[in-house]
Write a structure and sequence with these properties.
This protein has 153 residues and is mainly alpha-helical. It has one domain. The protein is 54% helix and 0% strand. The chain contains seven helices and no strands.
């Protein structure tokens, strides 16, 4: 398999865009599901834009690409459409190759006293996030379960 072939990525994005498109059933359920579908569509369009902007040599089959997109959405889905556009502008200034999730999160979760005043995420503008309260919450530490001393005595 040629790993530079963009077809699996494009097929995965097209399948995801089709799945995120509102059906008549979901459009009658209310504006919350419609807003969620619109947010997912915008995320996928931004991802397609990233494919055009950045070089990537590790393309997989269509299922791998779906997982790839899903992991990015899980990590960056809290950003509003404006936040994703700001992130894209920051990535264009910093990256030559397709940005990793870690690179994206380093831009988004920049400490306020980092001295990176050119980074729009420093001020934590509510317009950049879907859920502003969740954006203000400190990042959770991975792998920590319970409190110290909760184990067997």
């Amino acid at each position: 398999m040629d790993h530079t072939d963009p077809k699996p990525f494009a097929a995965a994005i097209n399948a995801a865009l089709t799945a995120a498109a509102p059906s008549q059933k979901s459009s009658t359920k209310g504006s919350a599901s419609s807003a969620e579908g619109e947010r997912k569509r915008h995320f996928l369009q931004v991802f397609r834009r990233w494919e055009a902007l950045f070089k990537r040599s590790d393309r997989g089959d269509e299922m791998s690409e779906r997982w790839f997109v899903a992991e990015y959405f899980k990590s960056l889905g809290h950003l509003s459409p404006a936040g994703l556009d700001v992130l894209t502008e920051q990535l264009k200034a910093r990256c030559t190759f397709f940005p990793s999730i870690k690179e994206c999160l380093e831009i988004v979760h920049v400490p306020q006293l980092s001295g990176q005043w050119g980074n729009p995420f420093v001020n934590r503008s509510p317009a950049l996030y879907v859920d502003y309260q969740a954006a203000l919450a400190p990042p959770r530490t991975a792998g920590v379960i319970g409190q110290y001393g909760d184990g067997p005595a």
